[in-house]
Amino acid sequence: METIKTLCPYCGVGCGLEVVPDKKQSWKVRGDRNHPSSQGMVCIKGATVAESIRSDRLLYPMMRDTLDQPFRRASWEEALDAIVNRIQTIRSTSGPDALCVYGSGQFATEDYYVAQKLMKGCLGTNNFDANSRLCMSSAVSGYVQSFGSDGPPCCYDDLELTDCAFIIGSNTAECHPIVFNRLAKYHKKNPNVKMIVVDPRRTPTAEAADLHLAIKPGTDIDLLNGIAYLLLGRQAIDPEFIEECTANFSAFAEVISSYTPEFVASRCGITVSELETAANYWEQSQRVLSLWSMGMNQSSEGTAKVRSLINLHLMTGQIGKPGSGPFSLTGQPNAMGGREAGGLSHLLPGYRFVKNAEHRTQVEEFWGIAPGSISPNPGRTAWDMITGLETGEVELLWIAATNPVVSMPDLERTKAALLRSPFTIYQEAYYPTETSAYAHILLPATQWSEKTGVMTNSERRVTFCPGFDTPSGEARDDWSIFAEVGRRLGFAEHFAFENSAEVFTEYAQLTRGQPCDMTGLSHEYIRQEGPQQWPCRENEPVHPANEAKRLYTDRRFHTPDARARFSAYHSRGLAEPPDPNYPFVLTTGRVYGHWHTMTRTGRTEKINQLHPDPFLEIHPRDAAKLQIKEGDLLEVRSRRGKAQFPAKLTKAIAPGTLFVPMHWGSLWAEGAEANAMTHAASCPDSKQPELKACAVQLVLVGSE
Ligand code: SF4
To answer: Does the interface ipTM go beyond 0.90?
Structure first.
């Protein structure tokens, strides 16, 4: 059998994989040397992904009437009938806004496209959101507000062309390992290249930096404004770029005028000298590349943080050029594809917006549906679906390829809401997960190896991912399940797809003339020519390489006047700062080997050996005050919930701050759920919850 070229289904780096048959019903995976993003490299997750293909798969539909009953096996026919009947009843009695679908960055682009077409185009509600809301929606709103459109402007080749990498809110070494490998190799070979890491923890990423700014949690905007103050004071700016290509500079300059080094250093908990060194590195670099991820996005002021970072690039003209620009690192393998295909509740396909009347008309005409079919109101976001269950406004929740009973904030509240759900459908490849316990109907979905589709990685590169394995049991592709429900609801002509290639072809046509134009792409084209960056227009099969590599090379943005917008923000700080009752800031994050809620990696032996248990990092000084020793069992309590972890004493975490990994749910470590403590306060623009910080107290419950 020929070698299959596909994509790693874990993180947004999007490493190319080669898969070859190993033993009977088993596969061997290695890095694809010809994949331009990863150049043959893979981390432990990609290398071991085949281990989880067969384990604990959901093999056939299961149903029950109430959550206290056991599941019974059902046929697809029975399950689909129940779903369709329920949707019809709710739609006619309570209206379409009582229906919600909550999808996933694990979806292929085709899955997203069909699901949101069903909800937004046919059922008349924009209540289709995805777990990407918890991951990168602040990056989306930051790009849109600053540039007039979403879309990371940079590419991975910039990692090896920069003079200074400014990494903020990203433990790249552990969470996007192959991006970091490329950068770290280049940094090591080029002593003049600088690496700045901004992170309250001394992570492996920070260890590799020339400068680690261990700022207090929530002070990112202070720091960014402080660097801007110094650059402006030194006239280390690009006046021509500011004049010709931007707007709102004076409001920005006014805001940063109070961010003196002394003020910023004291706000951020760093020294003036550290701040000045960061500004020096920016000033001395022709090309600065900023990388960020959850530490910026998962914040109640996530959009403001992203835009404050973009300000630095606008004032220095560091965008649209090799080795420079603001570059968000996407969490999931196809969160980018979701952004492109309308996979969030405020979006329509092709980077369009449900609020924009012209965009709605374009999509309605393309889909051949009546004018006014698409609601002008943004749908419920991830957390709004939970609150909708609490109030009774949501009567059907269809969750697919995600595990909210581990990943949502404020888990006790999330679980209580799900217990109240009148009808929850859970479409998933694995069983059990923590969420399956809250479902009325379980639908078995194919995964990664079994279905054909495309995924877009963080550098806008679209890779064809062919199904190469027989579906487990009766599992079906996510897109085909949504399409079948659509047909049964009476929308047969809108879901007459024979295969995912046809879905992609329809979707690509809908991107015509949009920033993410993919009209030049098809499954066949990508399969033959290899992964492609967009824009990739029809009749430009060999698209202008530089245009696709980087956006804004022509210095024209997607705003009405083609100018990028400066923003002007003061920080509001943490939504829940520490106080005498809850004196610590708890921050959450990831470890190198595990992925999200461990649905796959919890079933991978090598990764479990590497990271067998959750833990709580505490600074030795805090530990000494509370007489805590290494390995002692600690209970962390917030205003919402509590969890227990063994103590790990380390100077990597600052005094006053605690860290726990977010991966473990009750299936793998009962009572050690990081999100038991977190809260749902969200960014007003992106609606992304502040999963990165909450106030907690600490109690010693058992000594080693
Ligand atoms: Fe997969 Fe991300 Fe690791 Fe690459 S870096 S192998 S995409 S998990």
So the answer is: yes
Ligand 1 centre distance from Cα of residue 41 (Å): 9
Residues 518 and 544 reside in one and the same domain: yes
| CA 71 – ligand 1 centroid, Å | 35
CA 271: distance to chain centroid?
32
Task: Report whether pLDDT(543) > 70.
Answer: no
CATH number for the domain spanning 249: value is 3.40.228.10
574: CA distance to ligand 1 center in Å?
A: 31
Q: How many domains does the chain have?
A: 4
Q: Any alpha helices (H) in 22-154, and if so which ranges?
A: 44-48, 76-93, 109-116, 137-147
* Cα 65 to Cα 257, 363, 425, distances in angstroms: 62, 38, 12
Q: Give which of 332, 256, 273, 294 is closest to 7, Cα–Cα.
A: 332
Residue 218 Rama label (left phi>0; alpha psi -120 to 50; beta): left
Domain that holds residue 669: 584-702
pLDDT tens per residue across span 566-600 = 999 999 999 999 999 999 999 999 999 999 999 99
- 17 Cα–ligand 1 center, Å: 10
**Mutate-to-test residue for ligand 1 from 8, 29, 205, 591, highest number of ligand atoms within 8 A of CB:** 8
Q: Which atom of ligand 1 is nearest to the CA of 17?
A: 6
Atom number of ligand 1 nearest to Cα 13: 7
pLDDT in tens, 334-346: 999 999 999 999 9
Pocket of ligand 1 (CB under 6 A): 8, 10-11, 13-15, 38, 42-43, 45-46, 176-178
**Per-residue pLDDT reduced to its tens digit, 586-636:** 999 999 999 999 999 999 999 999 999 999 999 999 999 999 999 999 999
Return the amino acid letter for 419: L
b/e string for 180-189 if b means 16 or more Cβ within 10 A? bbbbbebbee
CA of residue 15 to ligand 1 center, whole Å:
5
For residue 23, what pLDDT is reported? Answer: 74
